[in-house]
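From the shared-data thread, chain only:
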Amino acid sequence: MRTYLATLLSACWLNSYFPRIWRRATVTLIHKKGDTADPQNFRPIALQPVLGKILNSCTRNRLWAFLTTNHLLDTTMQKGFWPGTDGVTEHTELLSYLLSNQKKLKRDIYVVLLDLKNAFGEVHHSLIRFSLEHHHIPAETINLIMSQYNSFYLNVSASKCNLNSGPVHVKRGVLQGDTLSPLLFNIVFDSLMSTLTDPQIQSHGVLWGDGLTRSLWTQFADDAAVICGRLRDTQLILAFYQRWTAWADLIIRPDKSFAYAASQRGGRYQQIQPSLTINGVDIPTIEQGGFMTYLGRRFSFASDAEQAKKIATDCVHEALDLVGKLPISPLLKCHALNLQLRAHLSFPLSHYSLSKTWIVANLDNLITGQVRKWLDLPPSATAHFMPLPAKWLGLDLVLPSMLAQVSRLGTALALQHSQDPKMRVLHELRADKVPFRDLVADVNRKEAAAKAKALQLTTKREKLDGLTVQSNLFKCLRAALTGSEATNWSHHLALINSNIANFARRALMRVLPTNSNLHRWGKLPSDSCPSCAGPETENHILNNCPTSAQQGRYTWRHNSVLKILAQHVLLHLPEGNEMFVDLPDFKNPEDLFTDILPDITVIHHGAAFILELTCCYEMNLEKSKLYKIEKYREASLSCKRNIPCIVNTAEVSSLGFVPSSSLNKFCRDIGIPPYPPASLRRMGEMSLRCSYFIFCTRHKPWPDKPTEPYFH
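Structure, as tokens:
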């Protein structure tokens, strides 16, 4: 397929021909904002044949390489859709700095946001050809590009209103959704950008930074912003832009443009309403106390902090409301919340300056407070485990304070490694506010973000480990389990009954409502177990109460897990081997041993392979293993057949953690497949469900014949 495709695309390139069958597209209308009755408030996205898009992608890559290698494009003002350039960040950070710096120095500033009518759809094809020729593009490449727009037809469709326009001939404009269109559009605008870089025109811009740097114009695709220090200069630049658009036959929309200004008046620096016009039509001004929006970021005369706080708080509330209504388990809600927070908060936290103290006190507390409700955690439960990854038994939750640091680091990296020298000057002016400043030297933004997150998680883990009570099980399990074993437990917990999953989380943090905890919290006068008078901790209830042991509670859990262990061995037992299990309906180990009863024994190749199961407390996984190995060290002396005995152990904790190394060794010894992940999860869930029932009935009579927990 690749060979045929390469041959086809090469033929198109060599013949400067865009196949007629690819010159068609279905246009889907996507609403941007405003009145849905106005067609201009919709963005037409063209869905083209895949092969045509591939050819255009190849053409775009060749074109971009040619233009940049030969320095034929200005990329310091126009920053829309350039590969490797975060134009939104660079433009918004520059405008934010200029507004605050001019205010600090009490200097005049005039900003005009300009809007073009259907800019992508109004570019003349003859202007595209002229611009390509002006940039010294080879004639063969120009012919290939222009052949696409010869007899190109669109079909506008909208399923909700049964709209189907039929074929519409494209006579002007570039296609939104086409991979080549953004570059063609920018090439057309480059004649304007190259003129604006003239030092004489640049002298009308705002002086900043080292006293030698000026900024006059920022452009992202068709979104333009004029920045001047005087009203007369601003009107002069607008007149120049007006003449250029008239030459290009593009239409400026004064009603969709906005003007903002701040100046020293009457001894006070204040926002003013400048009188600026385009084509004799007044440009609307930003009202007093209002804000303007450029590339998604809001700017106002007042401090951006209050606006930013409201935007960030609204984003968090929106994410929490959306996720809270989903009919899924609490742990899956945490995962969904991660996706929503990244989608809603990444932009505002990247482009607005909010203090870490405020974010922790307001946004983090909103998130952790809601997660506490979902997981039914008491107020005393720590939140330090929430952002930890699943391999450390955390929720892998995105906290806004951590996201803000990584986002601001990304902004600093975009400025520091920008191809525009002005952005590097801007970074130096703001370097003291950048978190993880030592990582800014890393060119790879992804690697720097990964290092920053690793440092954040290490800090959170250290804070968790510093707790006296709630960290104990976390530390022990991290030492006893592999990362994949802990991750499997965390992921499986999200799929089971929410009451049982919440129980497991609370038990892991040692905040179950045991008498010991209730006494610590001042809710009970004593911490004693009503059955045996010992301190009633979660370990006591689930593993060590002598009364419960006498009643057979722990034996019931042990045998429920043992049955799953035995079923896998029985299913794959090689022919000619014997299997003894200390359960009804199996061969009894009394037939093989005199004074010991191993849980599972398999006679294989003239040896007895023993698997001894322990359902134990999480802190005793290694201790239980060593105890069982020592207990059965002389098992051969008790064997009636006088054959060697090889002992392996299986530990399944009361909360469902399953170390798998010993189990896998036992399977290899007897020549059967290892336990699949599904069986390991089922064993762990069986132990957890039994523990949940044991805990719920801790102060109730134990049934004579309890049934095994069932799986949904």
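The radius of gyration is 35 Å.
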